[in-house]
Design goal:
The structure is a homodimer of 543-residue chains.
Chain A lengths: L1 H7 L1 H7 L6 H6 L17 H7 L11 E11 L5 E4 L10 H25 L12 E6 L18 E5 L3 E6 L2 H14 L1 E2 L5 E10 L5 E7 L7 H13 L4 E5 L15 H6 L9 H12 L4 E5 L7 H6 L4 E6 L2 E9 L4 H17 L4 E3 L8 H5 L1 H10 L5 H18 L3 E5 H5 L9 E4 L5 H10 L3 E4 L14 H5 L10 H6 E8 L9 H5 L2 H10 L7 H15 L1
Parallel strand pairs in A: 2-3, 3-5, 8-9, 8-17, 9-10, 13-14, 14-15, 15-16, 16-17
Antiparallel strand pairs in A: 1-7, 4-5, 4-7, 6-7, 11-12
Family (chains A, B): Belongs to the glycosyl hydrolase 20 family.
Subcellular location (chains A, B): Cytoplasmic vesicle, Secretory vesicle, Cortical granule; Lysosome
Keywords (chains A, B): Cytoplasmic vesicle, Disulfide bond, Glycoprotein, Glycosidase, Hydrolase, Lipid metabolism, Lysosome, Signal
């Protein structure tokens, strides 16, 4: 229908020249600046206007879009993705070369074979777009680096006859622009590939746009993780928060401590070997996605205890050990010896500047039952405030990890229980109850925050719950401008209690796409009907 | 672990001979006949007892199981599924030949290749089971027939050295017994295939055990339907209720009225051709599954109107037609001419003795707006009771379908609105509100009932909602013994508003397995912990 409408608009387009459609108008249906509630009818030209521009296929919606009804044709046999003149990147840039190959496939992959085998390319009236030239402007394009929190993901895309030009400061922006360009290209009923002349200026609203996967409750085969990284790239996510181990299993194969997975994994083949981990990191890097591993302590560690003797706290019933274990034992030097060595490995294996140290949901029951822990509490002057013991432990771990020059992410309890945190610590807010207040507190203390509370996608319900995720406004919390700047993004979390390879993809996507647009697009991109239309097209494309 | 426990129990087995474990004991954990609530601890020998018998892998649980810790080995290269002496079926029975091939694959498929390529078969101490002999006792085994409501699905299975014997009156019982036998065979850590000596006597509690799939809200590719038929066979379901068309689309390609799908399908390739329909019916037949098509009228028919002029009621605003249409127009002779021809085709294409005629959720608004309908109401003396008009229409359709010697299924409203129904009409109870009362009314009127109300599996929620489906007791409604007999079964319904090929399988299975066991197994098989264990194994096997 997009093409049909494009044709119907052809004459008008010629008469009027370029149709200016700032993205915000397209997305909200506003014509005169007045906000429109959902119940009000759309203007009668709404369908026409939306159909006439390629914006109904873009997700997440770029910050600024100008589009024309004039269409250019792409011939798969001739069209090229190339490095443009003046780019600091060239054929030696493996990351872009890989992206060129990938996006060529996305755009023409299946149809090309069909066209070649069945019929010659039909000569058409439309002018042709022959190239997309990619120009990286920074002196160091970043081809061999890993993305980080400060990566520049902005890009500028112009699609005009005879070549399209994609400019970005770094390769990370080029990756985002390639995704957008591929979303502009569409196939008509006759198998021709078309793109509307357009100009797009785009950049992310938030720097940290993450998806949490949990490979402990259920093991996730590599293929599931890689497929998810593809889907993340389609939605301009840039952080894989890999909740790799937990109580239930320890699939991470440690180089220093192989017994952790030997004993703690569900089985000897349900592990992530060093090669597997490198593959995930590289696959993610090529898509501009950071991999932040989470090694959650001192709670959520039952599986660690199987392969590491004396790491967990023995629980007592009166004077008798019960045989059960609680959180990591915070009173032993051996604990910190182990953690020092363990996190040295993690700091090397995972190149990202941040490690997530967990710190959530520490159950004090076992600590309270243990006579030696009680004695330690007394010596330290903690009284009966076990949150102080937790903070004592966490600060030791923070110090260890800091010594390896890694930044730290933690769950909100670490902040709530008053651990002394370095200013660059990222506090992840997950508790659904009054999360706006928590964001206010965290940023009020000068700390950086990431929001997850409204985006726990493992919770499912009947119907279009994506609208709920979409309608969250992350900055809607009390605080100064400075505080607002400290909220650097959010994460969609897919905890694994009821998720494995059989249902991960259909459960996460396209629901997580709603979070993806909220974190990328402008804050005034909030119209649900427009989002529904674009999301429908986007889902179809992802499939 | 089953095997390890079997070994540990080996000596005890020799001393005690066969361990008698009636299925009910295994499944409920009862040892002394007293009901145990979920919160009470299990007896300490529970794990041992359950692990020592193969019953922890059976789903749905057979009516009667006797098992021994003595294990027999199966050599894939030698083991055979064969027709036993005295069977009325032989190599000419395509249905059984196909089932033999299928179950051989399920039991040995992957491992066989591995064993052949990597190592010779190791000679073991266990005695060998060399054959499963299948004996059909009825003079007509039913190989070329279609299953029906009166099909005999009972079977008797004995597994003893050197041959296992599966006796059934008809092939339908043999299919169920083959599934059970395959569930008994397990692979140990060394790749050996083992089965415990056992005896099983089994039959279904209810004759109608269905799954509803909806191919109108989203088109379901043939592959999804066939995969689901496989899963249904794994769970001893025997009815595919194919809700094939609805408001949203008409994918059924009619022979007499091809325009229905030409105009009413989502697109020209999203249809079920006559060949597709035959394939589904035959694939189902080979698994002992009936295919009951639903052509729901007079409501839920928007898509019919696109390809069949004047079939739907024009809606009016005052004296002006609005251009919109309502339910099927019940006042025109042409409507009944069409339906006569249409259902003649359906009666031929679908061999099942029943057709589902729908009849749910008829919205009277459009009928009320139409002056000709109002005039008709007056002439017929219906006053303003549009339920009478609905019944008038439905009875005409029932008469048409009856003339083709087909039985009828209808949704509960057809009964509620007092249509005169033939005694063999099957009324499907779907409204969640007080469905026990509805069952009481339907069966009190002497009509046959099928229960779906508590099993709408398109509704999803967080966590193990299978327990909710499992805990339904269908016969828990007020009524006489005779009334209870009129409830012939139930259906798990997966409506398609939010279901397509991407999520059908993980959304339906294993949740529908809970319904499968409720409809097959004895009413006292209700222990959730035991069910959880068996369902976990069953899911793993299905995957």
């Amino acid at each position: 229908s997009r093409r049909t409408m494009g044709r119907a608009m052809g004459l008008a387009g010629l008469l009027l020249g370029l149709v200016l459609v700032p993205a915000v108008l397209v997305s909200t249906g506003l014509r005169h600046g007045a906000p429109r509630t959902e119940a009000e009818p759309e203007p009668s030209d709404w369908e026409l206007a939306a159909d006439a521009v390629p914006a109904d296929s873009l997700w997440p919606l770029p910050q600024w879009v100008r589009t024309s009804p004039r269409q250019l044709q792409l011939a798969p046999s001739r069209f090229q993705l190339v490095h443009g003149a003046g780019s600091s990147a060239g054929p030696g840039c493996g990351l872009l070369q890989d992206a060129f190959r990938r996006y060529y496939e996305y755009m023409f992959g299946h149809s090309r074979r069909r066209m070649r085998s069945r019929r010659p390319l039909v000569a058409r009236a439309e002018p042709e777009l022959s190239q997309l030239q990619v120009v990286i402007e920074a002196s160091d394009p970043g081809c061999d680096r890993h993305p980080d929190l400060t990566s520049n993901e902005a890009y500028h895309l112009t699609v005009t006859e005879p070549v399209a030009i994609l400019k970005a400061y770094e390769v990370w922006g080029a990756l985002r622009g390639l995704e957008t360009f591929s979303q502009l290209v569409h196939e008509d009923d006759y198998g021709s590939f078309l793109v509307n002349e357009s100009e797009i200026n785009d950049f992310p609203r938030f720097a940290h746009r993450g998806v949490l996967l949990d490979s402990s409750r259920h093991y996730l085969p590599l293929k599931s993780i890689l497929t998810n990284l593809d889907a993340m790239a389609f939605n301009k996510f840039n952080v894989l928060h890999w909740h790799i181990v937990d109580d239930q299993s320890f699939p991470y194969q440690s180089i220093y401590f192989p017994e952790l997975s030997d004993k703690g994994a569900y089985s000897s083949n349900l592990i992530y070997s060093p090669t597997d981990v490198r593959l995930v990191i590289e696959y993610a890097r090529l898509r501009g996605i950071r991999v932040i591993p989470e090694f959650d302590t001192p709670g959520h560690t039952q599986s660690w205890g199987k392969g590491q003797k004396d790491l967990l706290t023995p629980c007592y019933n009166g004077q008798q050990p019960t045989g059960s274990f609680g959180p990591v034992n915070p009173i032993l030097n051996t604990t910190y010896d182990f953690m020092t060595k363990f996190f040295k490995e993690i700091s090397t294996v995972f190149p990202d500047a941040y490690i997530h140290l967990g710190g959530d949901e520490v159950d004090f029951t076992c600590w309270k039952s243990n006579p030696e822990v009680k004695e330690f509490m007394k010596r330290q002057g903690f009284g009966t405030d076990y949150a102080k013991l937790e903070s004592y432990y966490v600060q030791n771990i923070l110090d260890i990890v800091s010594s390896y020059n890694k930044g730290q992410m933690v769950w909100q309890e670490v902040f709530d229980h008053k651990a002394q945190l370095k200013p660059d610590t990222v506090v992840q807010v997950w508790m659904a109850n009054n999360y706006a207040h928590e964001l206010s507190s965290v940023t009020g203390a000068g700390l950086t925050a990431v929001l997850s509370a409204p985006w726990y996608l493992d919770y499912i319900s009947y119907g279009q719950d994506w609208k709920k995720y979409y309608s969250v406004e992350p900055l809607n919390f009390p605080g100064s401008e400075k505080q607002k700047k400290l909220l650097i993004g959010g994460e969609a979390c897919l905890w694994g209690e009821f998720v494995d390879a059989t249902n991960l993809t259909p459960r996460l996507w396209p629901r997580a796409s709603a979070v993806g647009e909220r974190l990328w697009s402008s804050s005034n991109v909030t119209n649900l009907q427009d989002a529904y239309k674009r999301l429908t097209n986007h889902r179809c494309r992802m499939l």
